[in-house]
Write a structure and sequence with these properties.
The complex is a heterodimer of chains A (266) and B (446).
Chain A lengths: L6 H11 L21 H39 L6 E8 L2 E9 L8 H21 L5 H23 L8 H26 L7 H33 L4 H25 L4
Antiparallel strand pairs in A: 1-2
Helix pairs in contact in A: 2-5, 2-6, 3-4, 4-7, 5-6, 5-7, 6-7
Chain B lengths: L1 H39 L17 E7 L6 H9 L8 E8 L5 H11 L7 E3 L6 H11 L4 E4 L5 E2 L3 H6 L7 E10 L6 H23 L11 E4 H6 L10 H11 L3 E12 L5 H28 L5 H11 L4 H17 L9 H28 L12 H25 L9 E2 L8 E2 L16
Parallel strand pairs in B: 1-2, 1-4, 2-3, 6-8
Antiparallel strand pairs in B: 4-7, 5-8, 6-7, 9-10
Helix pairs in contact in B: 1-6, 1-11, 1-12, 2-3, 6-12, 8-9, 9-10, 9-13, 11-13
The chains are: A mainly alpha (266), B alpha/beta (446).
């Protein structure tokens, strides 16, 4: 039986295997490259997830309070009343979080406005088909998606305006609640998708903070813009705002920041 | 009253939405598993060290239709390949070109008459599958390697692709396709991300886990006897490569992925061409799903894990129309006032999963691929992949409609379409399908 090689010489041999004649590192070909499963592969995710949730536990209330303050600051400056309501979520009688929203209803559109909006959508679809068919074709797809959603909303508000179930208040509350849930899900999402990479733990922690801060900072302003648009243009614009510039926008912010932090050098 | 009348509709919408969410969650798990396996798991490259051997006879087939601008470079590289000369043949096939393709082929054939044996087709069914079927019928070689005319192989590539065939159960081998016109515009950059995720992570993970890597039609080879045993190339298939992958699987042959065997291709530079490409892939893939899904489910030749992977692979292009249906249900529920974000944890989980994780998993695959490729800066384009996703979803839906209505209901015969080339004068047309693998982003996994 061959004697066991000392771990130090094994480490040395391993290092020499990847050392060029000039002493530099010979990189493994990308086809064969993989990440080493080390202690950090377990320690980093566990530490960061535990740390993030401990922080979120403490920061959740100040975050939603900050959103409420932001709404209260900007609403009067946009010419809107600054009355704020709060939606509470509780588990087993214990309040988990409170989401603020402006106490606004939003006006129902009259039929002439619906005709104008519907006609504009059709014109926009035609125009985008004519002008954006070349290099900007996906932009045309986006325009069509928005227009289809808007036309469906017009149809709904034309046929049964009284049945339209949403108000500015419920729209903002739903949106901010989704942003909060995304924030709460962030450490878990990053566990498999960011913490497994070979970045240092400080970079991973900073990256998590950047993504979290992005969501926290963007959300209230995103829904302030929604509030302003609905108050100006009536409830007819709410459904496309909810779908395209609500959930999807939040996810786009998350993905953009994720892409940026993962692109950092380890 | 209105509420009671609406409740059955409401529940149907919720059920459909729940089904779509569950399906997206299933594909999400698959993406995450593949990415984690590729990053941290044991990597299988069993044939990488085969360097000297009693090499089998190989024929490299290069189907070409109007490829005057690109085929010269491919032939030059193929002549220079490191392989025993007495066992190596290149057969460029001019499939009714109307440009100077034949003249270019003849020039290169004259320079290496012992290796290059050109063929010219002036009749018969057009298209790559027909060319391959015709050549296969007359071949006197052990292996056939297929390159599109715009692919430029390295010197060692043919040996690398031939090595796995020493294993008797290997029926097909696929190499990695790397776009070389990445820097052209946003579209080519996005497609580069998609290819990286598809090959570096998806295909290699399937190889690692002994699942079903996909033969992509180019930068790959087949065992001639295996192809003959499973009935040759399907001339009536939109994706003859995927069709062959599944017939080989059903007959007990394995497809091997060689991540180290890289070859360079042109990706579409304009959206219209990209749309045609994704539609052709989707139609071909769904055609294969309709033909073989049931047989894969019942075949004793397919292992349990292979069966699951094969069925998920076959369902990839059905996900797009289902996603559209899911979104429509979610929007209808929104208009009906259904509180999507309710107290019920399941509903919250479903919405978050449907809206974010399902999309996000594909992004993770791309991130893992670029991390391994050591080109992390390209990751900053990731959010723009939504654009590619949206275009893919719409065009895959169009392809599904076309397959169902035009091909199945109206019985229209297969129409062969060419892939545009951009090298040379930039307006040429090619014969190739462009070796494809259903990459992470191509799987509309978002």
């Amino acid at each position: 039986m061959a004697p066991r090689r000392p771990s130090t010489s094994r480490g040395l041999l391993e290092r020499l295997r990847f050392q060029s004649h000039s002493g530099r590192l010979i990189r493994r070909h990308r086809a064969l490259r993989r990440l080493d499963f080390e202690r950090a592969s377990i320690v980093h995710p566990v530490t960061l997830v535990a740390g993030s949730y401990a922080l979120l536990l403490v920061a959740c209330a100040p975050i939603t309070a900050g959103w409420a303050t932001t709404l209260r600051f900007w609403l009067p400056r946009l010419g809107l009343p600054d009355d704020i309501g709060v939606r509470e979520r509780d588990v087993l009688g214990h309040v988990v979080y409170e989401v603020p929203f402006p106490l606004l209803q939003g006006a129902l559109p009259d039929r002439s406005l619906l005709v104008t909006v519907g006609g504009s959508c059709l014109a926009l679809m035609l125009l985008s088909w004519l002008l954006l068919r070349g290099r900007a074709l996906p932009l045309a797809y986006l325009v069509w998606a928005g227009c289809v959603l808007e036309l469906a909303s017009c149809a709904m508000l034309w046929l049964a305006p009284a049945e339209f179930p949403h108000t500015v208040a419920s729209h903002v509350a739903n949106g901010l609640e989704f942003a909060l849930l995304l924030l709460l899900a962030t450490p878990l999402l990053l566990t498999f998708s960011f913490y497994v990479f070979d970045h240092s733990i400080t970079r991973k922690a900073f990256g998590t903070a950047v993504i979290g801060a992005g969501i926290v900072l963007v959300a209230p302003y995103q829904y302030l813009v929604h509030t302003m648009l609905v108050e100006q243009l009536s409830l007819v614009v709410m459904p496309p705002l909810y779908v395209l510039f609500g959930l999807l926008f939040d996810i786009a912010v998350f993905v953009a920041l994720y892409a940026w932090v993962v692109s950092w050098e380890p | 009253m209105a509420a009671s009348a609406a409740w059955p509709v409401n529940w149907v919408l919720k059920l459909v939405l729940a089904f779509v969410v569950a399906l997206v969650a299933l594909y999400t798990c698959r993406h995450v598993l593949f990415a984690l396996n590729r990053l941290l798991g044991r990597q299988r490259h069993p044939y990488l060290d085969v360097d000297s051997a009693d090499w089998p006879s190989v024929v490299v087939v290069v189907p070409a239709h109007n490829e005057e601008h690109v085929i010269g470079l491919a032939l030059e590289a193929l002549i220079d390949v490191d392989y025993p000369r007495d066992r190596y043949l290149v057969i460029p096939v001019d499939d009714r070109s109307t440009d100077a393709t034949w003249a270019v082929i003849e020039t290169w054939a004259a320079r290496a008459p012992d290796i290059v044996r050109p063929r010219r087709r002036e009749g018969g069914r057009p298209g790559k599958a027909a060319v391959l079927q015709e050549v296969t019928a007359e071949l006197d070689a052990t292996l056939m390697i297929v390159f599109d005319a715009d692919y430029v192989p390295g010197r060692g590539l043919v040996k690398q692709l031939a090595a796995p065939f020493f294993d008797a159960e290997v029926g097909a081998v696929m190499g990695r396709v790397v776009p070389h016109n990445t820097e052209r515009n946003l579209l080519t950059r996005l497609l580069d991300l998609e290819r990286a995720g598809g090959y570096q992570v998806d295909q290699q993970a399937r190889m690692n886990l002994e699942l079903v890597p996909q033969y992509g039609g180019s930068v790959g080879g087949v065992r001639v006897s295996a192809v003959r045993a499973v009935g040759g190339w399907s001339e009536d298939a939109y994706a003859e490569d995927t069709d062959l992958t599944f017939r080989l699987l059903l007959h007990g042959f394995k497809t091997v992925y060689e991540n180290r065997s890289e070859c360079y291709e042109e990706v579409p530079e304009v959206w219209q061409e990209r749309n045609r490409q994704i539609m052709r892939w989707a139609k071909g893939h769904n055609q294969v799903a309709l033909r073989y899904a049931w047989r894969v489910l019942r075949s004793p030749m397919v292992g349990r894990l292979e069966r699951i992977d094969a069925l998920l692979l076959l369902g990839v292009f059905l996900l797009a129309p289902l996603l559209v249906v899911g979104f429509a249900c979610a929007f209808a529920l929104y208009l009906m006032g259904d509180p999507l974000l309710s107290n019920e944890a399941l509903a919250v989980l479903g919405v978050v999963c449907f809206s974010s994780i399902g999309n996000y998993a594909a992004f993770f695959e791309i991130a893992a691929a670029l991390h391994l490729d050591n080109s992390r800066r390209r990751l900053r384009l990731l959010p723009l992949n939504f654009v590619n996703f949206l275009a893919s979803v719409l065009n895959v839906c169009r392809a599904c409609y076309s397959l169902l209505v035009h091909d199945i209901l109206l019985g229209r015969e297969l129409r062969w379409e060419k892939t545009a080339r951009y090298r040379g004068n930039g307006n040429g047309n090619g014969n190739g399908n462009g070796g494809h693998v259903n990459g992470a982003a191509g799987e509309v996994g978002r």
